[in-house]
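_Full entry_
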Amino acid sequence: MFRFDEYKLRKFDFRMVILIIALCVVGYLVLNSAMVNDVDREQTLNKQLLGFCVGGAAMLFFALFDYHLLLKLGPLIYIGNLALLGAVLLFGVELKNATRWLDIGFIQIQPSEFSKIALIIFFASFFMMNRERISKPLVVGGSLLLFAVPAFLILEEPDLSTTLVTTVIFLAMLYVAKISYKWIIGAVAVAVPVAIGFLYIVMQEGQTLLEGYQLNRILSWLYPEQYASTGLTAQQEHSRLAIASGQLYGKGLNNASFESVKNGNFLSEENSDFIFAVVGEELGFIGSVCVIGLLALLVVECFRIGARAKDLGGRLISIGVGSLIAFQTFVNIGVASDLLPNTGLPLPFLSAGVSSLLSIFIGMGIVLNVGLQRSDRSDSDW
């Protein structure tokens, strides 16, 4: 379980830990500034501090916990994940037209956040066991079926954004597992017409593939002028305005400027989905680039560790976690800057939310353990 005698301090990735600490500090400062209401601020910051402390402890635990044991427990983790996702649909707490939370007494958890890490571990185990026949139809079909079950449960909450995240993670891991290019070319050939057909169907009246609010978000993004009077475009318009108003240096954290979009209560979900709008307004272009740079460096560290992992399982875990951070960062910032349709994904380490924090900390801890057991070969050997 803990292989202290085999771990070497020189292999511990302190760069990754420093990047995480820096992101947590920036996240706390921005979150403190984002909350206008004093009561809400205190409650949110206390929860976030709890998430940092518990998450940091979990990261240290999993950094020293042999990831090979997690790979062996992959099937049990998969079953446990399905049980939690099923429990959400049966006993979950509904909030904002979605049932995504489980009330366990003293706290509410969001199982779909932990599902991301659970699926990374399971498919790392599955692809490693089947690495010699990864391109066989039975293995490819089996992996698609095994992925479809939790993806369907997440989609039913409904949580389309998390379903997309898990899909991207799954595809990235499948690619790194070295599936044949024939499958990739075939998948693209099928996906393009299917995507076109999907878009055509959802644009028709009476369609049932998307929830009403999901369709409205897409349509209001595509045709903002037509939906301006409905208020559906307000979130992203105000977010874009806040980012632009920060200019080069920003207005400063906790500023009392009357010209602030945030201080005027024009931002919504400013502590979670639109936290980057606060970063842009108060830290400016330079601060925004620094935040993006820290997250980008964290992704690079994950990929570096994956490139030097001692086996395929470790490589897949690292690539899976790196893909998770990269995609969520891209989508969150894309939504805040109005480059993508409005969807609810947290910005790693900055957005409020204990479940998302714990999930990402656990993922980083497992990657750190992969690094502790990495090969001494250089990245170029791969």
Remarks:
- Residues 378-382 have pLDDT under 50 and may be disordered.
